[in-house]
Amino acid sequence: MSEDPRVSRAIALTWREAELLDRREYESWNALYTEEALYVIPIDPDTTDHANTLNMVYDDARMRRLRVSRLTEGYAIAAVDAARTVRTVSRFVPESVSDTGVVLRSAQILVAYKRSRHDLWAADVTHHIRLSPEGPDADRITRKVIQLINSDAPVPAAGFLL
């Protein structure tokens, strides 16, 4: 882990996020995001202008809440037949570091198990993290971009959050 405590805090937050997602604690996961945060899964592997290009997912706070509701409330195929997941997040590279925030790139490998089948999802992930003066427990994600390595090919419906 990094010697810089700001980077260490950002890494700890990404690991916490991964754990919440694997445990299907989606409401706690959503609480890690600021109100203005974006959760993005682009299609074009080369784009940086996510607001003006087609994405698999481009969720603001309202859409994240709706997505969490579909995964946790009532009868929804995404919730009833959801895959079990285990993910590893590693290869952390700080892109920028300040006293108020960290942009952190990493690699994520996710194994999903559903209907006696294992699927592998691999992605380069960029987290924009706001560091809180209140301490690490108050740090929040302001943007997460998940660039699947096969984003420009047909991608099956996931039934879980990346």
What features would you describe in this structure?
With 162 residues, this protein is an alpha+beta fold. It has a single domain (5-148), classed as Nuclear Transport Factor 2, Chain: A, CATH 3.10.450. It is built from four helices and six strands, in the order ααββααββββ. It has helices at 5-22, 26-30, 61-72, 77-80; strands at residues 33-42, 55-59, 84-97, 101-114, 117-130, 140-148. A six-stranded mixed beta sheet has the order 2-1-6-5-4-3. The longest helix is centred in the N-terminal third of the chain and has 18 residues, at 5-22. It is globular. InterPro entries: NTF2-like_dom_sf (IPR032710), Rng_hydr_dOase-bsu (IPR000391).
Mean pLDDT comes to: 92
User: Rg, please?
Assistant: 15 Å
Spatial strand order of the main sheet: 2-1-6-5-4-3
Cα shape: globular
Strand content: 35-45%
How far apart, in Å, are the first and last alpha carbons? 23 Å
What's the CATH topology name? Nuclear Transport Factor 2, Chain: A
* Sequence stretches where pLDDT stays below 50 over 5 or more residues: none
How many structural domains does the protein architecture include? 1
- Which CATH first-tier class would you pick? Alpha Beta
Determine the fraction of residues in helical runs and give it as a percent range. 10-25%
